[in-house]
Amino acid sequence: MPERIDFPALIAGHTVVIEMINSGDAGLPVLTQLLRVAQPALGATGMAFVEFGPTGGRVIAATGAAEWALGRPLAIDDPDTVCLLAGPRVRQVRVGDLSGKLASELAGSGLRRMVVSRAEIGGHTVGSLHALYPGDDEPGPEQQGVIAYLASCVGHMYGDQSGLPVHGDGPVVAALADGLAVVDRDGHVRLWNPAAAQVTGRTVEQALNHPLPFPLPPSGQVRDHRMPDGRWLRITSGELPGPGTLRVVTFRDITDQQRRDHDRELFVAVTSHELRTPVTVIKGYADTLTDHWESLTDVDRRQAARVIGQRANELARLVDRLLSSAAEVGPGDDPPTPFDLGEALRCAVVDLPAELRRRLVLRLPSDLPKALGHRPSLATVLTELTTNAGKYSAPDSPIEITASGDGQLVAFRVSDQGIGIRPEHVERAFDRFWQGESGDRRGYPGAGLGLYLVRRIVEQQNGWVSLRPRTGGGTVAEVRLPRG
Fold it and tell me: What pTM, to 2 d.p., does this model score?
């Protein structure tokens, strides 16, 4: 650990981050760049940021020796999570003093100390920033001060809704109780309850004697209004009885409902688009066989039957995905058991489509440790990851499957040499029905369900999955499971 922080490098790097924000960048790219700037200046081996929501946390940005943890979830009742959300806002922590799964994984990676600071907005914790070190030397007060400052910068990004939060509904956008306001005939606020302050972000002092931060619907009517930060409010108003001309206004956050409505519309659009092609082809070849059987050669008939079979298989896979996305997938009540990950991967490869199998390059070590999980579900995970890799890369380019293990985890990676993935999409790619393109002119087919199912399956086995750009072009999908 360096005796002093490289402040000139930190300031120069922070200037680059600010210029990114001024140029319109937001969210994960800015957050990751901030970590890349801070790591060498602080002399840290790795940096990480954990985003917290009502149901737990997830590592959404990581650099250096902590990059392996990208995408790792933290349960709300995990001892490490409880520790991070309690105590002083900024402090140094010995990894050995923690008792959760994350601590053992950090120790297994040679990381022994960390400086951690919570990122907060108005008393709400939105995440925690970590600088990780390998040795037993204690970080000095300068490191703690810089980490606290950087965590405040991240909190400011959340307050501005600069592409954050990344996963789930964080405290900044969580639906709260109904807001209540009373406005006079000029539209100025006369009463503003605490829930109104929580829903809109405007304190009582900021709201009183000022206009409402949203349009006032006519008395007795309901209006859905989108706020500048992207949230949706459902607003109602009515005349307040009495001699005055006061209006009472109630409003609540309906962002989740709008999202569900959007998902439903997207489901109809995606399924109709994806079902149309195989159904059209099957019908076309079936009509040809029916109407022209006698004039077709045996070769033509076999080819038509082969195409019908291929398209029917595609249709069956799509239906399976749709049904799985609406139901619980994974091991269910079966307890996790140790299994040979290398053998399971080799067996799963055999069942892949021929056009994928010929592109695969397996590099699996003979001494790969056993994994702890549900072996039958691995075939689904590998099928989705390799299908995704094949879809976004050239037909003649290789798809590499590698694996490794350490004292705590066993991992395998599916790497392609395709178009790659943008940093701001590495988390959104796991959302149900999300696709990088939209409309009928999409260059890449798919329903946007494969990666969503993969994450559900893997996390039900106490593992996690992440995406990252591949050095030299392409994408790396990595699955980590507990060691058996």
Answer: 0.56
